[in-house]
Amino acid sequence: MPNAPGRSGFRGPAPAPLRGRSRSRRRGVAGAAALLVTAGTLAACGGDSGGTPTLTWYFNPDNGGQVELARRCTEEADGRYRIETAILPRDASSQREQLVRRLAAKDASIDLMSLDPIYVPEFAQAGFLAPVPEDVAERVTEGVVQSAIDGATWDDELVAVPFWGNTQLLWYRKSVAEAAGLDMTKPVTWEQIVTAAQEQDVELGVQGIRAESLTVWFNSLIESAGGSVIEGNADDPENLELGLDSDAGRQAAEVMKMVAESGQAGAAFSTENESASAAEFEGERGGFMVNWPFIYAQAVSGVEGGTIDQAVLDDYGWTLWPSVLPNVPSAPPLGGIDLGIGAYSANVDFAYEAAECITTDENQAYYMINEGNPASSAAVFDAPDVVEKFPMADTIRQSLEQAAPRPQTAYYNEVSGGLQREYHPPASVQPGDTGPKAAELIAAVLRGEQLL
Amino acid sequence: MSTTTLPPTKKDAPKSAPAATTSDRARSERKLGWLLAGPAFLVMLAVTAYPILQATYESLFSYRLTDPDNRSFVGLQNYGVILSDPLWWQSLWVTALITFVTVLVELVLGFALAMVMAKALSSIRPVVRAAILIPYAVITVVSAYAWQFAFDINTGFVNSWFAWIPGVGTDTDWFGDFGTSIFVICLAEIWKTTPFISLLLLAGLAQVPEVLQEAAKVDGATWWQRLWRVTLPNMKAAIMVALLFRTLDAFRIFDSIFVMTAGANGTESVSFLAYRQTISRLEIGLGSALSVLLFLSVVLIAAIFIKGFKVDLAQARGEG
């Protein structure tokens, strides 16, 4: 039964003569409190209480690195603005889902957002990103590796600020490579590592799960073979030109099939993600693996925590992502995070100032050391503490320079989803057949004639 | 059977005081009824009817959330696209398969559990009931993760515990193909919702008159005969309501598929397909059309149960 009006929260009778006054005073206090709360809430929504403007930074979960950068930059702003953080879901596609829905409703609370570069074109095309001022664009691209700039560019204009730029390396066990007689100082091909894994009967860690990881793998294969998933009209869904039915597309599919049928990709290859590959590689049968550099930081903390032997970590080797064609450099995967500034933010200028602060070389070095995610600024890779923590820093920089972004289109979700549907499971890929089928599916989906 | 009372006309109304009182009372009761149910009815309209109508309206447009300027009316084209796509029929088949298997197994298991709850020794009855109901208290996403971790080739214990079963080994990838994925998805659903069915059946069991059981016993009926001839026929209404509710629920399966396979290996359900078009692809028109079709499927199931199997919801609630 609901409480009678005026009774809720009222404990014990007040002395009779004072009761009326006490109640009205209490009501007055409650009213004032409600007003204060409402005013505070409204101010928080507007992001500007008339005092210090508050910027809200929506970011992907990490180990606290971005919160620390927000603190540092708030301090540096010296009272002109304050950065608050709001956490997004763990995977990139869920982050996009949440941001897109808020931005479609013109959410003014989004000042800064950590964006996966694959979604930058979609956000830019929809007008969700505030234009980057020319002087800011000049400053934030200075000394930044080209692939990271490309990932933050749409329609020949920089639309986001490159923050960190990820790339995959080929990780190998030195003992296995030596036993197989592979010279890892020179670029190796997929065929070579598959053969070596078979000869040594070790596992080859590749991400075959039906998820973004599969697109990452396929895109780098086709780029390494000299092709591209999208060859033209990236912003026209009706006439998008796909390069899947090509020699490069067939060569990429051949590598996928070769790995899937090698017998060395693990029993759960079709559900294998990055973490599963890392776990395999740390195990007794670990041999080769393509993966992001976070796995090294993970192995180091494994050694510190006593779950991995130092000898295993000492056996870790790294080199550039494998080539598809002999003597042709590979195009490793590109990942990372860009900072987008919300188009509906009330404090765009401060938000760009904050973005510049977050992406200084010093802060990028801090972020790389503490989170294991590579910087987008080339100079950071020479910082002594970075080199000390990441002996492969130079390889990462070279890989970033060589890396190819995934298809840049406002319809990325359809392209990637179509690829995943047709190229999964990798064992079912038919080199002459899957490419045309995937191209047909993606085109039909983009024309609105088919479901995905 | 129900009776309908017409409001008394002036001509027929006796001029005596009691009749006038009855009429006033009926009127005021009706008024009170509306006053009590009215707010809930309005809330229902706002949270149920409005979204259904809006989805139906949106389904007639080609509308992408990131491109509102190019929104255009396309009539029934979205429905044409969906109904001519094999993916829709595949998802419908998968959804129907999961619904049929889970509801059937849950019915049998749920009935057995209801019998245990009803007949357990009174000293342990509360513990038994609480233990049986625990899975139903677990959030579906949590239950889906728990089952996924259990069957996962790297983190799971199922492969090593059940390696003695032919076909199961340490390298069995449960989420690697259609059959095994559906098996684990169904298992998780059955574990989670059997308590719901057993609760409804327990209520039905309580309605079976004890005198009938005793009469059957006196006539020399075996336990099995009493079950088939006395218990089950007398709880038909409860069984049908349990089936109806669970079928409607099972047909909307989403969480377990989302967590365990994300639709890989052809395990997409109709709800998952609607999610992918609306939330991932941001195609509001196409997604709304899918939602409307899902809604119509659910209405069809309810209609088949209520009209086809003559389920009397009032009777099952003990109002008949």
UniProtKB/TrEMBL annotation, chain A:
Signal peptide: none annotated. The keyword Signal applies. The keyword Disulfide bond does not apply. It holds the Pfam family SBP_bac_1. Keywords: Signal, Sugar transport, Transport. Residues 1-26 are annotated as: Disordered. InterPro entries: Bact_solute-bd_prot1, SBP. PANTHER family: ABC TRANSPORTER PERIPLASMIC-BINDING PROTEIN YCJN-RELATED, ARABINOSE-BINDING PROTEIN-RELATED. Belongs to the bacterial solute-binding protein 1 family. This is Multiple sugar transport system substrate-binding protein. The lineage of its organism: Bacteria, Bacillati, Actinomycetota, Actinomycetes, Geodermatophilales.
UniProtKB/TrEMBL annotation, chain B:
Belongs to the binding-protein-dependent transport system permease family. Pfam families: BPD_transp_1. GO terms for cellular component: plasma membrane. The keyword Transmembrane helix applies. Residues 1-25 are annotated as: Disordered. The keyword Lipid biosynthesis does not apply. This is Multiple sugar transport system permease protein. Coiled coil: none annotated. It is found in: Cell membrane. The chain crosses the membrane at residues 32-53, 92-115, 127-147, 182-206, 287-306. GO terms for biological process: transmembrane transport. Its main location: membrane. Keywords: Cell membrane, Membrane, Sugar transport, Transmembrane, Transmembrane helix, Transport. It is a multi-pass membrane protein. Residues 92-305 form the ABC transmembrane type-1 domain.
